[in-house]
Specification:
The chain is mostly helical. Helix content is about 80%, strand content about 0%. The protein is elongated.
């Protein structure tokens, strides 16, 4: 297998992983919306900075040696922002 074939093969693997990530993010947003409905019904504030910190720290532990904490934050901040927006609807 030459380098172009190898790259194409690896890119196909990435495409499959990207599809899985999209499915998981959609599921996450659906659950976040459900949480938002529960919070709204019970008068609970949408923003929970302690929970966000817990999630970032959990990912930092799992990804130790792979990504810096600021990289993890850069990846997940947009997801949190969308989740919070969905919870407020």
């Amino acid at each position: 297998m030459d380098s172009t074939e190898k790259i194409n093969s690896l890119r196909k693997k990435i495409d499959k992983l990207d599809d899985q990530m999209i499915d998981l993010v959609v599921q996450r947003f659906s659950i976040a919306k459900e949480i938002g409905d529960i919070k709204k019904t019970n008068g609970i504030e949408v923003i929970d900075l302690h929970r966000e910190s817990q999630i970032i720290n959990r990912f930092a532990e799992k990804l130790a040696g792979t990504l810096e904490k600021n990289d993890i934050t850069a990846i997940f901040d947009p997801i949190y922002s969308i989740s919070k927006r969905l919870q407020k609807k």
